[in-house]
Amino acid sequence: MPSLTMIEAIRDAMDVMMARDDRVVAFGQDVGRFGGVFRCTDGLQHKYGSSRCFDTPISESGIVGVAVGMGAYGLRPVAEIQFADYMYPAYDQIVSEAARLRFRSAGEFSAPIVVRMPCGGGIFGAQTHSQSPEALFTHVVGLKTVIPSNPHDAKGLLIAAIEDDDPVVFLEPKRIYNGPFDGYHDRPIVPWSKHELSETPQGYYTVPIGEAVIRREGTDVSILAYGTMVHVAEAASRSVGIDAEIIDLRSLIPLDLDTIVRSVTKTGRCAIVHEATRTSGFGAELSALVQERCFYHLEAPVVRVTGWDTPYPHAQEWDYFPGPDRVGRALIRLMET
Amino acid sequence: MNVLPLTLHVPEPQPCFGSAPDFSGFHLSEAGRVRRPAIDVEASEIRDLAYELIRVLDADGRAVGPWSDACTIDQLRSGLRAMLKTRAYDARMTMMQRQRKTSFYMQCTGEEAISCGFQPALQAGDMNFPTYRQQGLLIAQDWPVVDMMCQMLSNERDRMKGRQLPVFYSAREAGFFSISGNLATQYVQAVGWAMASAMRGDSRVAAAWIGEGATAENDFHAALVFASVYRPPVVLNVVNNQWAISTAQSVAGGEQATFAARAHGYGIPALRVDGNDYLAVHAAACWAVERARRNLGPTLIEWVTYRAAPHSSSDDPSKYRPQNDQAAWPLGDPVERLKDHLIGLGGWSEARHVQLKAELDEEIGIAAKEAQGFGTLVEGAKCSPASMFDDVYKSMPPHLREQRQELGF
Predict the structure, then answer these.
(1) Is A287 helix (H, G, I), strand (E, B) or coil?
(2) Could you tell me if A312 and A127 are in contact, meaning their C-beta atoms sit under 8 angstroms apart?
(3) Distance between CA atoms of A193 and A214, rounded to whole angstroms?
(4) Rounded to whole angstroms, how far apart are CA atoms A60 and A81?
C-alpha cells in the first residue's frame, strides 16, 4: 500500500470519487487552477475539467449555498472552506439550510454535500487560522461531523462522506496534514511515511461514518480524542507511563457511544482531550454521556483537557495548545483520584 | 426546438499562467481625459466614471487634466517619501520573516500609491477600516515604524500583546481600526461608524477598505445597502489588485462589470481610478472625502492596481501567474511614475532619489534593530502567557481565572 500524507489521501479520495461518479464536483477559493492553498485539490481541475473542479469567488455563504443547490439538483458537491475560521458567513447555509432541508421538505429535497475545512492550530495562525469549531456543528441537528487523525482514515472517511446522503462537515486538522504531530513542537517534524496509518489502500474503500476506533488498548484510563489530539494523547500517556486506552472518535456525529461505554466501563476512568475551547465544547457532551451511561463504573470524575477559553493567541500558541505535558499531568491527577 | 446542452462558464484568468503576460484587453483611459464632476453630483450623472479610469500622469510624466491640481510640490515629495518608506519597510519585514524572526508577512508592493495618497486626504479623528495590505496608511502619517515592527515580532512592546497575526495592526490614535483576518467584515463596520458620526452630529469621516476578491462576501453588499439607505460619511474603497491569492479578478466578478459599477445598483456615486498614479489617487480621495465631510454621502472608488508581490509570505505566485507580469502591467510602478513627474517639475533628481532610498533603508534598519531589542517571536521577551486571559471580557469571569491558575499564573 502506498504511504500518503493527509493532503495526498484527501486528494486521492476526491480523485477516486470523481473518477467513479461524474456527479462529484469540487470547488472553493483557490481550489481549481492552483489546487488549493494546502494543495488538497492539486491536479483535479487538470484531470476532470473546470466544470467539475473550479475556483469560486470569496464568499463562504455562496460556496455552501451553491453546494446546497447543486446537491438538490442531484450532484455530490465537495466544497472547500479555506480555513474553518472563515466558515461563519456560511453558517446560515449550513445550519438553517443544508442541515434541515430534508426535514423541512419531508424528504422531497436533501443536501448530500461535503463541506471540507482545515481546522486547529499549531501553525502560528493566531485567532483567524487556528480555530476548532466542531462543537458549532455537532450542536446542529441534521449534520454529520467527522474529523480524521491520519491519512488512512482521511481517505476512507472522505469517500464515505461523499457517498453519504446527508450533509457532512469534514474537518481536517491542518497541523497533521504533513505529519503525525504529537504536540512536542520543539522536536523534529516526523513525516507521515514513518507512521503505519499513512499506509493507504489504492482506489476505493470507506471508513464508515459513526465508528470510532481504539488506537491503543489499555486498562488504566479511557482517553476520548480526535484529530491531532489522538497523537498528543498517545505521546502523553507514553511519557507518564499510564496504560491508557485511546479512542479515536473519528466521527463526532453520529457518535460511536458503544465503543466509549465499553471502554470506560472497563477502565473506570475517562479523560477527554480536545483543542477547542472548553466551555460548551464537544467534551461537555462527551462528559455528560459518559456520566449518564457509566456513572456506576466511574472511579473518578471525568476530566477534560482542552484549549483555554480565550481566542487562539499568536505568540503564546504553545501555552494555549493542550500539549502532552498538560494532558500527562491531567492523567496523573486522574489516576490519583 | 433544437437545444444544445448547457455548459458552465468558468472564467479564465488574465494574464494566464504559462504564457507571456498579456494585458491587451485592459481598457486604459487617456490621462487627463476623464472629467471632474461637481462635488454634489448625483450618482446617476456619473455612471460613465465607473467604466473610465481617472488618470493624471501621462506617459511623459506630466500632470494633465481636471484632476491634476491637488498637490503642491512638497506634498508630492512627501508622498514619494511615504511610498519609498513603505517599500523599504516591506523589504525589511520580508527579510525578517525569512530569517524566521516572525511567522508571517504581507507586502503591498505596487499598491503603495493608494494608501499613501489616500491618507493625507483624511483628518485627525477620521477612521480607516483597513485590510491587511494598507500599511501605507500608517507610514504616510509617520506612525512610528518601531511600533508596527513590535507587533510584527509579537514581542514585549507589541501593543496587541502577541495575540494577533503579524501585520494585523491596530492604532486607534492613528485612525486605524483593528484588522481582522475574516474578509470584508470591516466594510460594513465602517458604514456603521460613519452612521454614528452622523447620528452624533460630528464631522468625522470613515474610510472602508476591501480587496476586489472580498467584494464577493455578503458584508460588502450589506455595506452598500446600508450606505445607500443612510448616506453616511464613508468612502468605500475597493483595491482591485487583480489577484485574490491565486484567483484572478474575473472570478470575483470583474469579467462582466467593473467593481466600481457595483455601486450603481445602490445609487451610490462611483469613480474608477488609476491606483498607480499618486496624483490621481490623492485628487479622487480628496473629492470623495470632501463629499463625505459635506454630508453629501458615500462614494465608492475602485482603485485599479497590480499586486506585484505574493499574497503573503506563505504564497508562491510562480505556481499560478506568469513571471514578470508586473513589468508588463500597463499602469506601471507608482514610485517610478511619481519620481519621473517630480523630476520633470524640477523638484527631484535621480541622485536625490538614490540618496532618499539609502536614508530610508538606514532608518528602517535602525528601527528594526530597536524593535528586535524588545524581542522577536522566537527569542527574547514577549507578553506573558497569563495575558491571554485578559481582554476576553472586560473583567475576568471566574472560569477564566480558574483556567489561568491551571496554567500556573
Answers:
(1) helix
(2) yes
(3) 21
(4) 7
- List the helix and strand counts (H, then E) for chain A: 12, 12
Start-to-end C-alpha separation, chain B: 77
Residues of A noted as catalytic: 129
Could A34 and B103 be called an inter-chain contact, meaning their C-beta atoms sit closer than 8 Å?
Answer: no
Q: What residues of chain B, 104 to 133, have a C-beta less than 8 Å from chain A?
A: 104
What is the bridge-based pairing of β-strands A270-277 and A303-307?
parallel
Pair (B386, B257) in one structural domain: no
Query: Taking 90 as the threshold, does the pLDDT of residue A121 lie above it?
Result: yes
B positions 229-258 inside 8 Å of A (CB) = 244-247, 251-253
- In this chain, the answer to whether the domains covering A6-198 and A213-336 adopt an identical fold is yes
The residue count for chain B: 409
**Residue B323 and residue B315: Cα distance in Å, rounded?**
14
Look at residue B5 and tell me if it is in a domain: no
Asked whether the beta carbons of A245 and A223 are under 8 A apart, the reply is yes
Q: Cβ contacts (< 8 Å) between B180 and chain A: which residues?
A: 128
The CATH architecture assigned to A213-336 reads 3-Layer(aba) Sandwich (3.40)
Query: At A303, phi and psi to the nearest 5?
Result: -115, 140
Q: Is the Cα dihedral B58, B61, B65, B67 positive or negative? A: positive
Task: Name the residue ranges covered by the structural domains of chain A.
Answer: 6-198, 213-336
**Average pLDDT along chain B:** 96
Q: Which domain holds residue B408?
A: 379-409
Top residue of B388, B401, B402, B405 to mutate, by most chain A CBs within 10 Å, is B388
Do B151 and B210 fall within a single domain? yes
Within a domain: B17: no
Facing B246 at nearest CB: one of A30, A129, A316: A30
Do B199 and B121 share a structural domain? yes
For B175, other C-beta atoms within 10 Å of its C-beta total: 24
Q: How far is CA B228 from CA A143, B185, B190, B260, B342, in A?
A: 38, 18, 13, 14, 39
Q: Output the pLDDT for position B25.
A: 85
Residues 338-397 of B with CB under 8 A from A: 377, 382-383, 385, 387-389, 392
Burial (CB < 10 A; 0-12, 13-18, 19+), residue B363, is middle
Full-model pTM? 0.93
In angstroms, rounded to a whole number, what is the distance separating the alpha carbons of residues B377 and B380? 8
Cell 483628518, located at residue = B123
| Cβ contact, residue pair A58, B392, below 8 Å | no
- Beta strand B243-244 with B247-248 is antiparallel
Q: H helices within B99-158, ranges in order?
A: 112-118, 135-139, 145-153
Residues B141 and B171: their CA atoms lie apart, in Å, by 12
Total of domains in chain B? 2
Kindly state whether residue B47 falls inside one of the protein's structural domains: yes
Tell me the C-alpha distance between B265 and B47, whole Å: 11
All three cell numbers of B289: 472625502
Written as one letter, the residue type at A14 is M
Query: Looking at the partner chain, which of B13, B252, B392 has a beta carbon nearest the beta carbon of A57?
Result: B252
CB B31 within 8 A of CB B57: yes
CA distance A309 to A289: 22
Q: pLDDT by residue (tens digit) across B113-167?
A: 999 999 999 999 999 999 999 999 999 999 999 999 999 999 999 999 999 999 9
Q: Which of A63, A60, A53 is nearest to A11 (CA)?
A: A53
- Output the pLDDT for position A240: 98
> What single string gives the DSSP state of each residue in B365-401?
HHHHHHHHHT--SSSS----GGGGGTTSSSS--HHHH
Q: CATH says A6-198 is which class?
A: alpha beta
| Predicted confidence (pLDDT) at residue B15 exceeds the cutoff of 80 | no
C-alpha–C-alpha distance, residues A267 and A265, integer Å = 6
